[in-house]
Amino acid sequence: MSLSLTVDGARWRTHLLDVAAALPGLVPVAKGNGYGFGLGRLARRAQWLHERAVAGDTGSAGTPLDPGVADTLAVGTYEELGEVASRFDGDLLVLTPWRPFGAALDVLEHERLGRRVIHTLGRLEDVEDLLTRRPDARVVLERSTTMLRHGFSARDLWEASAALRRHPAARLEGVALHLPLAQGDHFSQVNRLLTDVVGADLPGAADGHAGAHRVWVSHLTDSELGRLRHDWPDLTFRPRTGTRLWLGDRDALRVRAHVLDVHPLERGDVYGYRGRTAPRSGHLLVVSGGTAHGIGLEAPTGSLDLRGRAGTLARGGLDALGLVRSPFSIDGTQRLFAEPPHMQASMLFVPTGSRVPAVGDTVDVRVRFTTTSFDEVVIEG
Ligand SMILES: *Cc1c(COP(=O)(O)O)cnc(C)c1O
């Protein structure tokens, strides 16, 4: 009685190895709902990926994995560290910048975990504050991008670098750039930002200290990364990747919901929380999956302008009768919600003439993985 994610294990693992082969220095990202899989599962999988890389495995085209793949796992928040720390052995990069409150402070008290965590810094006051509290902290300095979410300006990056010199026990692990998703002209922006990175005179840069030459990036294409590696041979790029890694092969993933109940409906029959009347005869299907799982309303099927609407009415489209498209589909046809989704179940309308599944059957569901809570995740094979 569940909304379940079934994973074709062999296919998924092949995809993970292929992404790792394409992205030397890959840093898997496990945050939020764990991209639908759960944080713990992704942490174990990242550990596996790192072990495969160290063992010299290749992607399916024969490209060997760089041994640095997945030596670090990125999490979104300090609160997420607990779920991954016992399942992944390597370093843990926290993407949300450190602030002097909440779980970001608690982790400083942990002797062992504290040594594995890499903090992201984005404000000058936080550099002083963190290093006063934990002088040996490992830190990444974030340079702000056109995202304008977090990070230092070019000038403040230089100041942060100067502040780090006043704390010789601090361990600089690199500079972070979080780029927008939009494809296109990342390249010129990254080039400008890298000029700032080099101009910031990072501690250790002149002595070849690895952290002063490491740049953590996101959302660059393989060719952009290739060009950057070519143009900036002194820098090491670490691509932080979540969606493309975990969700990049949709054919390895299948989401299904159980049919929980089936009721025949005559035109005019009353049903649902809102006492709607059936627009025509058919069946009411109650399936698992509702708002608590993140199942939401989809955009109406028909055109919203008057002419389109008149056309839909003339064709007798059900959406014109006030029903809304659902993410559930039966035999490849997307079905309409009989009414908006409930907390854990949804009611679908199946018009007469279509095959009616039985209780216990499953139907396919199209979801946004990063906002869906599955009742179960099954890795097959
Ligand atoms: C979420 C996130 C990523 C990974 O994003 P995807 O689109 O899932 O690959 C990388 N960097 C930062 C800072 C993030 O917050």
What does the average pLDDT come to? 93
Run of helices and strands: EHEHEHEHHEHEHEHEHEHEEEEHEEEEE
Largest sheet: 8 strands, parallel, barrel
Approximate helicity band? 25-40%
Instruction: Supply the helix-strand structural class.
Output: alpha/beta
The shape, in one word, is: elongated
Q: Distance between the terminal alpha carbons, to the nearest Å? A: 22 Å
For the record, what CATH class of the largest domain applies? Alpha Beta
* CATH arch. level architecture of the largest domain: Alpha-Beta Barrel
Overall number of domains: 2
> Helical region count?
11
Instruction: Estimate what percentage of residues fall within beta strands.
Output: 25-35%
Pfam families: Ala_racemase_N
InterPro entries: Ala_racemase_N (IPR001608), PLP-binding_barrel (IPR029066)
Protein name: Alanine racemase
Domain Alanine racemase N-terminal: 70-186
If you had to describe this structure to a student in words, what would you say it looks like?
By secondary structure, this protein is of the alpha/beta class. It folds into two domains: 8-247, Alanine racemase (TIM Barrel, Alpha-Beta Barrel); 253-380, Lyase, Ornithine Decarboxylase, Chain A, domain 1 (Beta Barrel), CATH 2.40.37. It is built from eleven helices and 18 strands. β8 (214-218), α9 (222-231) and β9 (236-241) form a beta-alpha-beta unit. Residues 300-304 have low confidence and may be disordered. Bound molecules: pyridoxal-5'-phosphate. Residues 70-186 form the Alanine racemase N-terminal domain. InterPro entries: Ala_racemase_N, PLP-binding_barrel. Pfam families: Ala_racemase_N.
